[in-house]
Design goal:
With about 190 residues, this protein is α+β, with helices and mostly antiparallel strands. The chain is built from three helices and twelve strands, in the order H-E-E-E-H-E-E-E-E-E-E-E-E-E-H. The strands form five sheets. Strands 5-6-7 form a three-stranded antiparallel sheet, with no helix packed on it. Strands 8-12-11 form a three-stranded mixed sheet, with no helix packed on it.
Amino acid sequence: MSCALVLGSAKSKPFATDKKIGIIMHQKASALDGALFNNVLGIAPGTAGKEILKQGKLQLAKTYPHVVQVEKEKVQKIERTDSGFQVITNKAAYASKIIVVAVGPSNLFNIEGLNQYLQPHANLPAAKQRIQMKNIDHKVEENLYVAGVLAGWRSQFATAAGSGAHVATDILTLWNDGQTAMVHDSEPK
């Protein structure tokens, strides 16, 4: 969601006005479900992880309604096409030029077309049998990115969320013809 929020905030930039952004919100279980946050900057101590997930969806919908949230669909397959990718869910198929994969590092990961990029997680205990996608600085291959713990980061909320924002700025830079692009909404003057 952090990647979608940053991408959504760029809508008024000339290089992003014609871009369509969507997020498939399927992950049924999350490590955040049982988390209680006291150590994340900007989040009130005692905030439950479940609440962050719930409020994150609402924040994305309210602040950036042009970002399409696809609910109750599970990605089953990703195929490379001449123009990018086809994302096939249990209910529909979507075309996309860029893909960001940001799900948990469970060894039950099963998205056809991505399994060849999986490897044991380098920063989590081997006994946990967690995985990550092979990547260099979040990039798996051209226009295919991975964010969060699946990118090889440790399981810490602020780290995983920052990873999503990192990927978003890489995509914004790509959209901006390679010129570094970062966006922040501004306070009204």
